[in-house]
């Protein structure tokens, strides 16, 4: 009895200490972003899910439950390097078994010094990302730029068709392209009109409230499944861009903003004074959103609203149709580069060049046992030599193996497809961020590379999603995808029908320089979700012989589908803390 009394508080304390920092629950639910109801994947009941704010240096534990009935899921911490924690990257069959219906998975990772910035989390199964995403903000003690507060602009695409319907169309014969989204959302909101049972009232254009004479850091996050967005705010240009993809850059002014799926851009917004607003007789301002690099343009908006009460200021109605903004808040036509050639940060490194080719049509259902699980079981042995002789791609594992501590140049070639169209493909790399070395129009060659390097005004900076460059770069040769070059005849023909457009014959290229210091199995893929479903992805196997050890007690959960970790009563959660060693 005496012993039990003594033990109870101790056990209670231990179980208190062993708590996730955050819990997220993924479920199916109705989402009516533009008033049309879609049954969708939601996180903690909403789309977007809750914003998660973490701190540089944190050792984070996030438990994710799959409350959906018929679908697997995972959460990917988009842009986080997963240094020492490749098992927490959240890619099914690459870094982990998917989370089974009714199951959960514990994501533990470190936020290294220097990682402060804007990220997102999203599911990485099928096209669940259409609604299952949220903002992930890593804060630091002292940001290098002064601002009073931050604002989050999560941009998304909303389709009325269900995830299952979209996926079925993309993988089916005949092939069915989902077409452009029905709405462009801002923080999950869009004005829309509909009638009938699949309709819900209350949808509206997003309104962001600001105070006069305040400096905001606007964290714009590209959570779109497809769209490439150009955007601006009436009467507030220029925008001082300070961050791309979780990395600070030297402040640079831009007359408008660009963002594609997977990218993050922070800019400083200095709001007007009360006197300026009075002179303008205006406290509400339209922000215009338009898509680019597709054959049709889609339109969206949000409203910047000053908290300045004065009765006769005209107000904008977020519950009314958005007027045509292309005259009042004009945006330029498609053009490569945006401001990306003028930005500066960081230092490059010099080593060999790999040509990245990929003759393999990626699918999230292969390999049968996830790469990283095989590697931890010591059953994955990439053929480094064979891969080198094959342009970087290892046919035995369908991956690009890279030794730990190697620095490689990844050369992306964007060739017009066989139907003559050149599309925009924002390539996102999981794990550590590479340097964007150079990008160019036309053929790639050493001379073109040298000329493009000399053309840049600053040091290469790091990215995890090809910025602005999209059309001008960031694309593996389409002809190297089996889905396009060795396709099923039906799919090939239907692809032609879906992607007809103005014929272009230009080629574009981009070079990423990657120092392979973070071991793990990491995806490299086009962040346009339908393209990824169609196979536009490849796996980088970095340092399979040099993986960090798994946290203690994690083995059971990690090694099998739908197993869960159980901590023996009173046991020390050693693994959780072991990861920190060596930092
Ligand atoms: C998500 O919801 C769960 C309960 O359903 C709650 O415990 C948790 O705190 C929520 N997470 C966040 C980040 O709000
Ligand atoms: C869920 O994932 C498991 C393991 O990869 C797989 O066997 C199963 O078919 C998947 N279930 C669904 C509904 O996709
Ligand atoms: C996964 O495990 C949980 C907890 O043991 C169980 O309730 C659920 O039915 C399992 N799901 C599947 C698909 O096996
Ligand atoms: C998707 O749903 C629409 C109707 O909402 C239907 O016309 C179409 O055939 C469906 N596509 C697939 C691939 O199931
Ligand atoms: C502006 O006013 C609204 C409505 O009164 C309030 O909800 C919001 O918090 C205010 N915003 C700021 C930035 O003060
Ligand atoms: C950006 O523009 C503002 C206003 O025109 C100016 O004050 C600021 O110095 C510019 N910043 C840079 C980095 O050019
Ligand atoms: C401001 O605009 C409102 C609505 O358009 C108008 O009624 C009012 O007279 C204007 N005030 C000034 C000072 O121009
Ligand atoms: C301007 O935008 C509207 C939608 O807001 C669109 O219907 C129209 O075609 C656009 N005009 C031009 C010239 O792009
Ligand atoms: C790898 O596979 C591709 C496509 O099947 C083939 O063209 C190539 O010759 C193979 N390379 C090696 C080294 O086996
Ligand atoms: C990789 O480089 C780091 C730092 O230079 C070094 O500490 C580490 O031992 C190297 N790893 C291997 C496997 O060579
Ligand atoms: C250099 O930059 C300019 C402006 O961005 C661009 O028009 C030109 O094509 C670039 N030249 C090379 C060789 O990259
Ligand atoms: C080693 C090296 O190249 N260092 C350079 C890094 O970049 C800064 C400017 O961004 C240079 O001043 C350093 O010389």
Automatic annotation (TrEMBL):
Molecular function terms from GO: copper ion binding; hydroquinone:oxygen oxidoreductase activity
Cofactor: Cu cation
E.C. designation(s): 1.10.3.2
Chief place of localization: secreted
Catalytic activity, reaction form: 4 hydroquinone + O2 = 4 benzosemiquinone + 2 H2O
First and last residue of the signal peptide: 1-17
Record keywords, A-Z: Copper, Disulfide bond, Glycoprotein, Metal-binding, Oxidoreductase, Secreted, Signal
Xref: Gene3D superfamilies: Cupredoxins - blue copper proteins (2.60.40.420)
Family matches, as InterPro entries: Cu-oxidase-like_N, Cu-oxidase_2nd, Cu-oxidase_C, Cu-oxidase_fam, Cu_oxidase_CS, Cu_oxidase_Cu_BS, Cupredoxin
All copies of domain Plastocyanin-like, residue ranges: 28-141, 151-274, 386-462, 507-542
Subcellular location: Secreted
Oxidoreductase among keywords: yes
Record bears the keyword Glycoprotein: yes
Record-level GO cellular component terms: extracellular region
Family assignment from sequence similarity: Belongs to the multicopper oxidase family.
PANTHER family on file: FI03373P-RELATED, MULTI-COPPER OXIDASE
Protein name: laccase
Organism encoding this protein: Hericium alpestre
